[in-house]
Amino acid sequence: MYFDPVEALDRPALERLQTERLRRTLAIAARSPFYGERLAGLNIDDIRTPDDITSLPFTTKDDLRSQYPYGMLTRPQEEFVRLHASSGTTGTPTAIFYTQGDLDAWADLMARSMYACGCRKTDVLQNMSGYGLFTGGLGIHYGSERLGMLTIPAGAGNTKRQIKLIRDFKVTVMHIIPSFALYFAQKVREEGFDTADMPWRIALIGAEPHTEEARRKIEEMMHIKAYNSYGLSEMNGPGVAFECEHQTGMHLWEDAYIAEIINPETGEHVAEGEVGELVMTTLTREGMPIIRYRTRDLTRFLPGQCACGRTHRRIDRIAGRADDMIILKGVNIYPMQIEHCLMAMPEVGQNYLIELVTEGVSDQMKVKVEIKDEFFVEDMRSLQALQKRIAKNLCNEILLTPRVELVQHDSIPKTEGKAVRVVDNRSKE
Amino acid sequence: MYFDPVEALDRPALERLQTERLRRTLAIAARSPFYGERLAGLNIDDIRTPDDITSLPFTTKDDLRSQYPYGMLTRPQEEFVRLHASSGTTGTPTAIFYTQGDLDAWADLMARSMYACGCRKTDVLQNMSGYGLFTGGLGIHYGSERLGMLTIPAGAGNTKRQIKLIRDFKVTVMHIIPSFALYFAQKVREEGFDTADMPWRIALIGAEPHTEEARRKIEEMMHIKAYNSYGLSEMNGPGVAFECEHQTGMHLWEDAYIAEIINPETGEHVAEGEVGELVMTTLTREGMPIIRYRTRDLTRFLPGQCACGRTHRRIDRIAGRADDMIILKGVNIYPMQIEHCLMAMPEVGQNYLIELVTEGVSDQMKVKVEIKDEFFVEDMRSLQALQKRIAKNLCNEILLTPRVELVQHDSIPKTEGKAVRVVDNRSKE
Predict the structure, then answer these.
(1) How many CB pairs under 8 A join A and B?
(2) Does A87 touch chain B (CB under 8 A)?
(3) Which of A133, A309, A128 lies closest to A204 in space, CA to CA?
(4) Which architecture characterizes domain A1-323 according to CATH?
(5) Which of A311, A415, B212, B337 has the fewest CB atoms within 10 Å around its CB?
(6) Where in chain A is the domain with CATH 3.40.50.12780?
């Protein structure tokens, strides 16, 4: 029923395991130049429960950057076999190093995750993610082989060929970026196939945040079950938290990570169930452990037990980045709120674009929204009514009335990678 | 001294191992629909030496295509964990399936190959090859991790970032396409670095056929040792044959493959040391063995013992494809002959292009040749003399006088992938 019995360990045993692994992790971490200094004076015997982690300092992205390239390593570089790095286009990159043991542990977590949402060794997985320095490609790839699925390293792009492979090899599981999934479904139809006749049954769509409405739209258009997940390269990559077949939040693998949710302003834990910044600690990484990492991702713990029997707590889908927050006229807005609101309306198509502009002395938000063909009628009056309704719904959500522009299906440019949803053209003066 | 003691096994023991593995391979192969029929009536007890393989039928690319997708498999599809496929842009693709055991054996061969040319676990390898369905990327990647090198999955493209990674992580081994290596060396200089100051020491450049002269030019411009290798996806991918540190031909791993060289017209073995088509049989593949595969690649066995002590025979660099042969005015010409001749001349730059055209009723060859800046003088007479000299040298090699056009450095368009060297614009009437 589970890939690993640890998934259903009772909470007291799970917390004892966390404590033991946290103590070991701290002992290892102290061998790195960075934590050697940062944790100096720590008495590991003071760590008696997972909650004792709150006595330790946070680690930030800037800390990782300041240690680039080797300052976080706990052993000689020659004992590492893999490196992933962020692009570093906006400053010093961050680099994550893995020993063979770290890669094995990661592949196991990834295999466990895919098993939880119904993948089995009899499945055929097509990995439509780019490979390379980005952890999404190789992360899914190694986990899929570990689970024993026939793994097709298709990579990104070349839609026609992707469709041919899916049909020829009866692909049942796809790893696909959510913002590309709807475009892909449309291409399948343009090639003359019915998405209901495709062999697929599971889509892994965790690569970028998306709303529940976007997921339902993908499921409907592709005739597939789509599962959300969460990961970040600082915590290995994908496979940190994954939905089970019940699709009620993502089980965060607590034998491998300690997760906390804090108020990003105060650094204190939020009340149970409140949204805040996710903070994570590795418990099984031997080469480059990271303690209390500030992910900048906003989420909350979901209350209650999951029907699947797994005891690891579930987190809600990511509600945005602490850094992505738009501040407009003194109001805090997360782009996810706008997507959530738009995707709930049946007239709205697949794509939208938020633009921030300065007009005169005041900043404005414009939202360009694609409308489905059947609603894009020539009757000016009903279009204007729709436009007003969208603006009103958005105002209810974000407490500001944006200017809404309706456009035809396919008129907002699409990329095959992550979608650009916000363009900030405000005057910087 | 060797990654695996089998590399220096004495010939009689090696041949006994080959015979034993060939017999096992035939027994396994007969479980597939294709070989079940093709090998019907074969008595495995008739196979007593590796040479007895000549009694078996060849397998061609068309055979593989006719069995697409599953006809070559010896076990249920769910026992396979990886698939690689050719692009199939010009017809039915070919698909190669791997079990976990096959991937392990391939990674071992790849690790052994890199060890043979001096790579060690203390090295840092940057894989500049594209990943995905092409076997070159993941093949090198898995072998590098197996050997214990710190592996950077950089992928293709983004030259500036590649240079940054190489400098930041003190990359000592690069996997780079030979036709891209010279372009890359130039970019390194344009970024203001001296190639002599880069941390690299080994370039693995086996991804496409090239001449000895091209290798020496890469070594000189990059201040690196460059090693050639041979592989094809039908025989796993890279890691079939690899140069050792002596750079005198590529050791073909005879415990994993039986290699034959035949006259492509008659199918008979050529005389020892003669050039012909390489034919290969897998000896360790359990999921999808292939018997006597016609590679269409032209090479020869090199005579004598290698100073490294490895007993596995060496093949010469690939002299072309049986299919790439140009027939012009009744003469057989391999593009490699032209490259060989051009790269031997100190005035010639990095790039050239062969164009075949019809003029009136007769076909002609034009060769556009880039000349190094220091030789591209304004003195018409000396340029004309150089042009004549190139035409004469080419005529000595290919027995035809092509029309030679001299162009300035960088005037032939370059791609980041495989170089296009021949354009056939002959009238098809």
Answers:
(1) 105
(2) yes
(3) A128
(4) 3-Layer(aba) Sandwich (3.40)
(5) A415
(6) 1-323
Q: Are A62 and A19 in contact (CB under 8 A)?
A: no
- Any chain B CB within 8 A of the CB of A90? no
Q: Please name the residues between 260 and 319 in chain B that touch chain A, using a CB distance below 8 Å.
A: none
Nearest CB to B155 within list A124, A131, A145: A131
AA identity, residue B66: S
Give the Cα separation of A352 and A165 in Å (integer).
30
Contact A121/B78, CB-based, under 8 Å? yes
Give Cβ neighbours of residue B292 (< 8 Å, ≥ 6 apart): B53, B56, B57, B58, B59, B260, B279, B280, B281
Q: Start-end ranges of CATH 3.30.300.30 in chain A?
A: 326-425
Q: Verify whether the Cβ–Cβ distance B87 to A131 is below 8 Å.
A: no
Domain B326-425 carries which CATH code? 3.30.300.30
Q: CB under 8 Å to A319, separation ≥6 — which residues?
A: A275, A298, A299, A300, A334, A336
Per-residue pLDDT of chain B (429 residues; tens, 9 = 90+): 899 999 999 999 999 999 999 999 999 999 999 999 999 999 999 999 999 999 999 999 999 999 999 999 999 999 999 999 987 655 788 999 999 999 999 999 999 999 999 999 999 999 999 999 999 999 999 999 999 999 999 999 889 999 999 999 999 999 999 989 989 999 999 999 999 999 999 999 988 888 898 999 999 999 999 999 999 999 999 999 999 999 999 999 999 999 999 988 889 999 988 889 999 999 999 999 999 999 999 999 999 999 999 999 999 999 888 877 787 887 778 787 888 889 889 999 888 999 999 988 889 999 999 999 888 877 888 889 999 999 999 998 888 899 999 999 888 887 666 677 888 898 875
Residue A421 to chain B, least CA–CA distance (Å): 25
Locus of tokens 């198509």: A349
Give residue A328's region: left, alpha or beta (phi > 0; psi -120 to 50): beta
A133 in contact with B, Cβ within 8 Å: yes
Residue B212, chain A, CB below 8 Å: the answer is no
Record the tokens describing residue A406, joined without a space.
């309706």
Q: Indicate which of A120, A121, A128, A165 best probes the interface with B, i.e. most B CBs within 10 Å of its own CB.
A: A165
Instruction: Say if strands B314-315 and B293-299 run parallel, antiparallel, or are unpaired.
Output: unpaired
ipTM for the complex shown = 0.83
Per the listing, tokens 């030979």 go with B178
**SS3 at position B97:** strand
- Partners of B161 on chain A (C-beta within 8 Å) are 87-88
The nearest alpha carbon in chain B to A97 belongs to: B150
Return the SS3 of B251.
strand
B200 touching A (Cβ < 8 Å)? no
- Residue A195 in contact with residue A186, Cβ under 8 Å? no
